[in-house]
Amino acid sequence: MSNLPKIKKLSNNFHLLISALLVAIPLYYVIYWAFINSLPETLITKNVASVPLVQNHLSIKFQLIGFVVSLLPLSALVYGLINIRKLFSFYKEGVIFSFEHVAIFKKTSKALIGWVFLSILYESAKSVLFSLGNPPGQRIINVGFSSPEITTLVVAGIVFVIAWVMDEGRILTEEQRLTV
Q1: Global pTM value
Q2: Residue 49: CB partners within 8 Å, gap ≥ 6?
Q3: What are phi and psi of 93, to 5 degrees?
Q4: Are 122 and 72 in contact, with CB atoms under 8 Å apart?
Q5: Which residue of 13, 82, 147, 175 sits 20 to 30 Å from the alpha carbon of 23, by its own alpha carbon?
Q6: Non-local CB neighbours of 154 within 8 Å, separated by 6+ positions
């Protein structure tokens, strides 16, 4: 029995989920920076180690700077999600092995790598913005590279190797098809 109907059904669900994420994630970033002064401090400092953080409100100028800098990792993330959605679009149509799949896997791998490095830049900029209101000597620039970034880079490497393997499989399949 073929798994193709299950693949199509599950891929349709993932296609819908990723389509929703493509709307929700950018919206989250807009809401985060628009209402940064109204959010609880625990939410703001969730991923920022800018201690000591002094209670202060970010000016509109710093909110805009923060939002613009957030577009860097967001663009890499959205690019990766668009590629993954395209992949599931192929799967839900029953197309499971083509050159486009290889290209999508490679693009997704590159998006993951870009997302890691742009996220480091973004988090560093956030630490500066959030500690800029601190007295001199207590302002912080925090540059971090930890296990989530390493994990993402490993996944990116695995996805890239899978793309190579799929390409070799595709080449072998095409050679067999042309052999009489």
Answers
A1: 0.84
A2: 127, 140, 142, 144
A3: -90, -5
A4: yes
A5: 147
A6: none
What are the backbone angles phi and psi of residue 81, rounded to the nearest 5°?
-65, -40
- Give Cβ neighbours of residue 78 (< 8 Å, ≥ 6 apart): 22, 25, 26
pLDDT per residue as tens, the chain (180 positions): 588 899 999 999 999 999 999 999 999 999 999 998 887 776 666 555 545 455 568 889 989 999 999 999 999 999 999 999 999 999 999 988 888 999 999 999 999 999 999 999 999 998 888 888 788 888 888 888 889 999 999 999 999 999 999 999 888 888 888 886
- Please enumerate in sequence order all residues whose Cβ is within 8 A of that of 52, keeping only pairs 6 or more positions apart, or say none: 131, 134, 138
3-state secondary structure the chain: CCCHHHHHHHHHHHHHHHHHHHHHHHHHHHHHHHCCCCCCHHHHCCCCCCCCCCCCCCCHHHHHHHHHHHHHHHHHHHHHHHHHHHHHHHHHCCCCCCHHHHHHHHHHHHHHHHHHHHHHHHHHHHHHHHHCCCCCCCCCCCCCCCHHHHHHHHHHHHHHHHHHHHHHHHHHHHHHHHCC
